[in-house]
Protein: Reverse transcriptase (RNA-dependent DNA polymerase)
Amino acid sequence: MSNCLMEEIASDVVLEEAYAWLCRRRKNYSHNDEVWEVRFRWVEIKSRLQCELIAGQYRFSPLRRIHRTNDDLEIWSAVDSLVLKAIAIVLTRQLAPSLSSRCFHLAGNGGAKAAIREIVASLPKNQFIFRTDVKSYYANIKHDILYAQLAEHLDDARLLDLLWLYMRRSVYDDGLYEDIDKGISLGCPLSPLMGALFLDVLDKRMEAMAVFYVRFMDDWVVLAPSRWKLRKAIALVNRTLAELDVEQHPDKHSLVKQNASSRFWVTNECGGANRCRPANN
Structure:
């Protein structure tokens, strides 16, 4: 634990890395977008950011909600997005060593392809398959639970306060402001790490069981050699999700006993992320 993480976040090295990321991510934004003002005045803005972050005075602006055909998108301001990226850079180094290696969406754990390779390699030894995910995962993460998890790892009150504001954000939508009291933001550079941390307790508990387990964000697969071991694993999953106050998605829940025609394939779903699911042909 460290109470000097904010100094690291506000350092020239981290802020410049976050600034380079912002420039890449928003290089095709409209010429009227605020990102160009940030680029034009970056030296001045960086100096102000460093003072506000170290003093614990930085505050996020309300997000803008954009309504699209199939979903809504919440957009952070350019400076807020940069700050969140800087926090993500530092917290990844701080938290990653203590997070489970069975969470494959974290950088350095191999990603979806590595998870799939491990699943395929483990199939011959395991007859029973359980695959599920969390219903509306990001939208249903409870702030008090996530904050308590963060407080177990972090000892910088300024950073914890800022992380609370990241969770308890305000959103501007067609002339109205909405205070968010549940869930974390999609499309935010910090959210994948928060998504990994929130279910880390599940990862650790599953690692201690005599079953095969992999997770990619809120989607996981359990393989077991016997029905009895799989039932124990499912009971543990249900108990852990109840403690975290989230639910399994009723339409993305599969329980399969392998046979000669059973196999796994990779499907492109959920915005292009590679996921695993069992099928019978």
